[in-house]
Amino acid sequence: MKIPYIKIVQKNEVFYITKFKASELKGRINFHFREPYSNTPEEVIKYNDYIDKLKKKGIEINASDEGVQRRIQISRINKIQQFLDENDDSYFPTSVVLGVDISKYEGFEQSYLKMESNDFGEIELPHDITFQIVDGQHRLAGLFISDMVNKEDFEVSAVLLFNATKYTCAKVFADINGNQTPVNKSVIYDLFDLVNSTNSKSNKIKTLHMLCKKLNNDPESPLFHHIKMLGIGGGAISQAFFIQSVDEVLKSINFDISNIQSIYSHLFIYLKCFQRVFKKQWPVIESKAFDDISDFNEYASYLSEVLNKDIYNNPNQFIDYSNYVLKIQRSQLLKTNGFGSIMLLFPFVYNEVKEANYEKYFNIINSLKDKIDWANDEILIQGTGKKNQKKMLYKILKILNYSI
Question: Could you tell me the superkingdom of the organism this chain comes from (predicted)?
Answer without folding.
Answer: Bacteria
